[in-house]
Task: inverse folding
């Protein structure tokens, strides 16, 4: 067996694959947070619960309606995004002129309520969700075995992340979104309904979390606690990349997933803290984040 730095190649590349998978979820979730913060200036702590809701939509529509993974991947972002629209219309729109702390406290409370409801009905143990039949099996690359579903998760996450970046940074719609954060009065002068745009943007950010939840269901199982386990890491990713930075969320998410995977190989004791150590160092050197802009 080939070894690299004294580590068997299969173990090394296996951890890199796990790192890329985790990085895919970090990137998608932090992208949703970046979109919401960049447009609404709300630190959305409900994001982890909405990620969990995406996984539960996939589970429930399979259990009760017989709808498969591919259908769930289409309807989960819509259904969970609609719950986000309701939250924004009922609660968040009242907080835009207040300090960020109010939005953080509100969304944190909503996350606890949502998590508590699902935990009450489904308990804390994970519920199994099958890998879709089309993506079962894998490819033997010689130096490692690559499961088809893992490869799909990485590829699809990249497509969604880069597609979102393109829409926001390179299209007229994205220009309106960015302009509305700087000068909503001017954007209204062009006949654009800014409140509706804000609502739809929040729903879109929530939908990204739901997509991540559906893709995570066959890997991590479906649990009311799955959002709680990942959201703190995702917030660290957003801080490192820069609050509100779209490209920062994408690059940092994948990079930190890889760093976390490598740490599990060479220094396993630090694998749970390495992201937070990096966050502390970045904040000391560049408080706005690697891709953020100082204000």
Result:
């Amino acid at each position: 067996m080939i070894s690299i730095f004294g580590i068997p190649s299969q173990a090394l590349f296996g951890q890199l694959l796990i790192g890329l998978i985790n990085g895919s979820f970090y990137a998608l979730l932090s992208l949703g947070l970046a979109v919401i913060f960049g447009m609404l200036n709300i630190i959305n702590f409900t994001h982890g619960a909405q990620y969990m809701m995406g996984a539960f939509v996939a589970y429930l529509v399979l259990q009760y309606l017989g709808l498969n993974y591919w259908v769930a991947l289409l309807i989960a972002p819509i259904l969970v995004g609609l719950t986000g629209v309701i939250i924004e219309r009922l609660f968040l729109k009242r907080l835009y002129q207040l300090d960020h702390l109010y939005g953080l406290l509100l969304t944190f409370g909503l996350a606890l309520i949502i998590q508590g409801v699902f935990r009450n009905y489904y308990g804390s143990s994970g519920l199994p969700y099958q890998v879709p039949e089309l993506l079962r099996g894998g490819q033997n690359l010689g130096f490692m075995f690559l499961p088809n579903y893992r490869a799909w998760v990485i590829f699809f996450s990249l497509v969604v992340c880069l597609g979102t970046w393109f829409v926001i940074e390179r299209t007229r719609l994205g220009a309106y979104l960015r302009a509305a954060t700087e000068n909503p009065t001017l954007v209204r002068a062009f006949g654009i309904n800014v409140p509706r745009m804000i609502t739809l943007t929040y729903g879109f950010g929530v939908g990204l979390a739901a997509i991540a939840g559906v893709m995570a269901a066959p890997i991590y199982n479906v649990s009311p606690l799955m959002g709680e386990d990942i959201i703190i890491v995702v917030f660290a990713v957003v801080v490192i990349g820069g609050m509100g930075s779209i490209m920062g969320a994408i690059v940092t998410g994948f990079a930190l997933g890889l760093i976390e995977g490598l740490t599990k190989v060479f220094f396993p004791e630090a694998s749970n803290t390495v992201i937070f150590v990096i966050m502390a160092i970045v904040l000391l050197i560049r408080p706005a984040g690697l891709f953020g802009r100082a204000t």
